[in-house]
Amino acid sequence: MKHIVRDHVAKEAGISEFQAEKAVDAVVDYFKTRLNVEVNNEIQGVLFGEDRHE
Q1: CA distances from 37 to 13, 26, 45 (A)
Q2: Alpha-carbon distance 42 to 12, whole Å?
Q3: CA-to-CA distance for 13 and 26, rounded, in angstroms?
Q4: Residue-by-residue DSSP string for 38-49
Q5: pLDDT of residue 54
Q6: Integer angstrom CA distances of residue 4 from 7, 33, 35, 41
Q7: pLDDT in tens, 19-38
Q8: In angstroms, rounded to a whole number, what is the distance separating the alpha carbons of residues 1 and 46?
Q9: CA-to-CA distance for 19 and 3, rounded, in angstroms?
Q10: What does the DSSP 8-state code read for residue 53?
């Protein structure tokens, strides 16, 4: 899923995939400092492919 988000950011922002990857990582890191552990775990699960709804 992270690659889908990266590709979307790259397309919408008109930046390279490398730059978009850095942007997505920055947002995820920001969330880690602002959101509780449960929400962060859910975000990580979605981005890195853990399907918790099956």
Answers
A1: 29, 17, 12
A2: 24
A3: 15
A4: HHHHHHHHHHTT
A5: 42
A6: 5, 24, 23, 19
A7: 999 999 999 899 889 999 99
A8: 7
A9: 12
A10: T
Q: Six-digit token pair at 24?
A: 């997505």
Q: Which residues contact 46 (CB under 8 A, 6 or more apart)?
A: 1
Counting beta carbons within 10 angstroms of the beta carbon of residue 11, is it exposed (0 to 12), middle (13 to 18) or buried (19 or more)?
Answer: exposed
SS (H, E, C) 1-31: CHHHHHHHHHHHHCCCHHHHHHHHHHHHHHH
**Hey, how many other C-beta atoms are within 10 angstroms of the C-beta on 1?**
12
